[in-house]
Queue: 4 jobs
Job 1
Amino acid sequence: MKQLKNNTILWGRIIVVLFLLFLTFSFAMFQGGFVSWFIFYMSLPFIVYSMLLAFYPLQKIEVSRKVHTTQVRKGGDFSATVTIYRKNPFPLLYTVLSEQTHSPSLNKIIANLRPKMIVPGFRKSYSWSYTLENMPRESMY
């Protein structure tokens, strides 16, 4: 079921991008002139990049976390480094990284942190270090 939803979203994005390509091309054909063809040719690289990005294999990105803090106590600090490695050097314009957890008390702390935005470009690996201060005590029961 999840695969069907992902395929529907993928094909929906592709159809929207192809519709934009058709729309700008038909505008240039019917309007004519330099400006309309300029709009078509300026939108063409973005449309091609969007099409290629739709088929980018996100499942092949490897993410690993190295925890620097061996023991975390209530009110203490937690620090870690996240390393992202991708095999395909397809240029990514930007990537947004954020910590995710199932703990409600940690979600409150993480909500105050801004997500990290990186511009990886052609780089295959990137590291991100972060520190969480005043760690809460979790109840196991």
Job 2
Amino acid sequence: MLIDLSPSATELLATLSENTRYKIRRGAEKDGVKYRGWNSSPPEVMAAFSEFYDRFASQKGLGQLNRVYLNALEAAGVLDISCVTDKEGRDLVWHVHYRNRHRARLLYSASLFREVENSALRNLIGRANRYHHWQDMLRFKQAGIRVYDFGGWYQGTTDTEKLGINRFKAEFGGTVVTNYNCKLLLTAKSRLLVNAGKWLERAMEPRNGARM
């Protein structure tokens, strides 16, 4: 799901669903949520996000955060982290993007929605997440980035949770586009290394009847 950030902020806001525009305004005006973003993340920000994400992943039955990957993105200068807090300063939602000169692609979106039983707080987190995406879009637009990439789009019809995520993304407008996330091998050395890795994986596979 790609959103063209080249129109004005007013034009972009008009492409959002009416319900989403209302929740963004309420988040800013009545809820008093606060937005912060870093395109070069201090260690304490990385640590805060990592701890928060691991709690989120535990709720969803996901694996813990790949910190090596996150640190590699930061070292390459393409990591962007943002957070929305409530009026008391409690973290509500974290977003992590891969960011280059032309595109910002959502990698992680984490909230503790599932561990909250209070319906008012759950609704607040939902509004905060919409406000969060909108502020991300505005910040990237200001930085000259042309495309906001919501990441994957579920093409099936049976997974209700993923269909719900599709509906959430569609609230922001945009277009579903086929993109590829892959390795492009440009040199003979890279092809040799990848093929050697595949050979090593096959060599290490247990044979029929082998005990592990």
Job 3
Amino acid sequence: MSSYETLPDNLPTPEDDGACAHLEGMPLPDLDLPTTGGGSVNLSKLPRKTVVYCYPMTGVPGVALPDGWDEIPGARGCTPQSCSFRDHNAEINALGADVFGLSTQDKAYQEEMAERLHLPFPVISDAGFALIEALNLPTFEADGKRLTKRVTFIIDGGNITAVHYPVFPSHSDPDWVMAQLKET
């Protein structure tokens, strides 16, 4: 396993700063966003429940992470989170929901990652910050790049019905999702 597939010990735990308190009940904007595998998606118009996990950026084997990455609360863990959703995708689908990943990385970057990690679901590129800004999702800066903080939400009928923020550790996120889907 590469170092991106495991989480180091003693990562700082992110605290709930209230940056996502406004999301539950919020309607999704009418936006078409590019996805891996071709095409685009409009999250406001999907017929099934939908899980969107937003993450800062996945690492690339052989390329160093930004300086101080492990010291930023909640930054580390994008690959383990994506792999965990991959491993639980069939269970989430059986509970009546589809999964999408979302980051600000461009589509080409995401396509390589999705293929390398064998993701069975699309990943959305919000490189232009259209959805992030429309929903007022929290962001941070690292290495001169603006990135989204890790947040997961469930959409039903075009509205956000549940929000997981902050997500920590990242690979536990599907457990929260499945518990939420079982409650509804």
Job 4
Amino acid sequence: MVILFNNLICEKHDNIYVIKINREKYLNSLSEEVLKELEMAVDILNDDEEVYVGVIIGQGKAFVAGADIDAMKDMNFEQARRFSKLGTELFRKIENCDKPIIAGINGFCLGGGLELAMSCDLRIASTKAKFGQVETNLGILPGFGGTQRLPRIVGIGKAKELIYTADIIKADEALNIKLVNKVVEPENLLQECIDLGKKISSKGQLAIRYAKCAVNKGYEIDLDNAINLESYLFGLCFASYDQKEGMSAFLEKRDAKFDIQKDISNNK
């Protein structure tokens, strides 16, 4: 199934929902329209009970080369603040989506593009990918969460260096500083993302969702409360079909047949 937006192409590959940003002429830059369409696509991904994992990737030579500078250059304070809020709320929605989302990064991943990639759970880059939080070249700072997510991923010192200098780094350095999880050849990028999505889809999906919640929420609170959250979610797993099936399959030395739909049906 394919869903076409003005700037997106969305496709389902079994339990994987692929969102392709299709604005090649502008290197997939993030206009207000693109941000709103991405929000609609993420809502579809999250609401579709047959989808377990999402993939966001760019068409052509870029993942996302940044925000739409032509649309931004004449903004006043209020307009810029609203634009920032639009982006930050979308990226927070991606971050808090029940389902894991993988960024497939081909070519330029700059400014708002890097901020979009960092809001995803996992990042796979092609060997041709280039990364940068380049806003200081334009006389601004990152406005879609870059000053907050980049230090959490690469450490505060490296994050300040990248933000202050606006340096652009290649895929191998991005891997070295743990900005990305894996680097692959460009022609293999989409398939690598789908394969990783399928691997995740083969696990207990309720456990995946609880694990994402535990990691994300736990990272934002003190350790004692984070451990209490983990214990609570651990306990909830034992009220699920997937836990019974997973442990039975282990003891019976067979492959588990997880089915989150049974837990969804039981909770309706």
